Amino acid sequence: MTLTPLLNGNRVRLTALNSADTETIAHWQQDNEYLRLLDAKPAYPKNEVQIAEWVREGQRGRETFLLGIRLQATDSLIGFVEIGDILWAHRVGWLAIGIGEDEQRSRGYGREALTLAVEFAFRELNLYRLQLTVFAYNHAAIALYERLGFQIEGTFREFMERDGERYDMLLYGLLRPEWVR
Fold first, then answer.
1. Closest to 174 in 3D by CA, of 62, 106, 83
2. Is 152 left (phi over 0), alpha (psi -120 to 50) or beta?
3. Catalytic residue among 44, 109, 137, 145
4. Statement: the pTM of the whole predicted model exceeds 0.70
5. Do 81 and 69 form a contact (C-beta atoms < 8 A)?
6. What is the DSSP letter of 121?
7. Domains parsed from the chain with CATH numbers
8. Among this protein's residues, is 34 annotated catalytic?
């Protein structure tokens, strides 16, 4: 039997995060655009201590699997993927992705990393359903999720306010039988 490599793509690979990565991730926290694409909470940077706790929690691998996105060519950390809040009895998990450096966005790294993460979730963790939320103003992420087969399942109307305007938050889901690589 030949096993397919799970966490290695052509240009990126998914790895464990380690304590040395906290400085890089804390640097990303200084980018307001990154923070506003990633989270509905106020765009407030976390420090290295807070990042280290998040990494430690992700390393426990019970209900959350936190993986770094590294370039194959240089081993540079450019982002993360998180499969979290897993409900094992139902085989359901939440998915999140962040590409930290602006110059690494819109280059296809997120698509490759997300493809690897979905494969890992369905083939190795044996999940049946993945779900995620995305803000309606994040057009690049929405296009990516839809290209990968995620389907819109709901809208949290006028969920958040940014710069005096209200924005929807969209719920997307992907079922294992729908996943076509």
1. 83
2. beta
3. 145
4. yes
5. yes
6. I
7. 12-128 (3.40.630.30)
8. no
